[in-house]
From TrEMBL:
Residues 2-222 form the ABC transporter domain. Keywords: ATP-binding, Nucleotide-binding, Transport. GO terms for molecular function: ATP binding. Pfam families: ABC_tran. This is ABC transporter ATP-binding protein. It comes from the Bacteria.
């Protein structure tokens, strides 16, 4: 499903050039659950940005669902992000003035989807993530775990090819982290492809495959 070949990305830092990704090649199959690990500066966040079409590589090819997207323009990348990728962030990225239900609906609103179909999907997802009793609450009225459940439902609303989770338990306590990871595991068992960045060994253990990065290279993949 995800195929990267010779991906290179570098940044200017003053007079220095920092190579964030150094000819990275990687394949991720449909329904895999992959954890990407590495210390700060290892390249894991840059790799996630490339996978999520949030950044374009300087060289190399990236195929998502057999489409080469490495050099597409911003408008096309935006469309692909909305249609094929679900994002889960450490800081949730919910709109504070909207209810949980309205936050979940947002991607379909941006896609100008049929309102009845959008609400049907949202109703199913609200139940799936266990938030029926909280769907009309605003984010500030919810716990961190509940907000992350909203974010997960929002990531699923467009029925994406892949979910990209960036430190999904980073702002959660240990008990809530387990609950969120159990939910992600259930989604994986139901057929969802998940790629997750984490620095926590116990969280990475939920994945079936772990990729370790260092200095822009893949150090280990198992």
């Amino acid at each position: 499903m995800l195929e990267l070949a010779g991906i290179r990305k570098q940044f200017q830092n003053g007079d220095d050039i920092v190579v964030a990704l150094n000819d990275v090649s990687l394949s991720i199959a449909q329904n895999e659950f992959v954890a990407i690990m590495g210390s700060s500066g290892s390249g894991k966040s840059t790799l996630m940005n490339v996978l999520g079409c949030l950044d374009t590589p300087d060289a190399g090819s990236y195929f998502l669902d057999k489409q080469n997207i490495a050099q597409l323009d911003d408008d096309t990348l935006s469309h692909i992000r909305n249609q094929k990728i679900g994002f889960i962030f450490q800081t949730f990225h919910l709109l504070p003035k909207l209810s949980a239900y309205e936050n979940i609906l947002l991607p379909l609103r941006y896609a100008h989807a049929n309102e009845d179909e959008a609400r049907q999907r949202a109703d199913v997802l609200v139940e799936r993530v266990g938030l029926e009793h909280r769907k009309h609450h605003k984010p500030f009225e919810m716990s961190g775990g509940q907000r992350q459940r909203v974010a997960i439902a929002r990531a699923l609303i467009n029925q994406p090819s892949v979910i990209l989770a960036d430190e999904p338990t980073g702002n959660l306590d240990s008990k809530t982290s387990v609950e969120i990871m159990q939910l992600l595991t259930e989604l994986h068992h139901a057929g969802q492809t998940i790629v997750m960045v984490t620095h926590e060994d116990d969280i990475a253990e939920y994945a079936q495959r772990t990729i370790m990065m260092k200095d822009g290279d893949i150090l280990n993949d198992q």
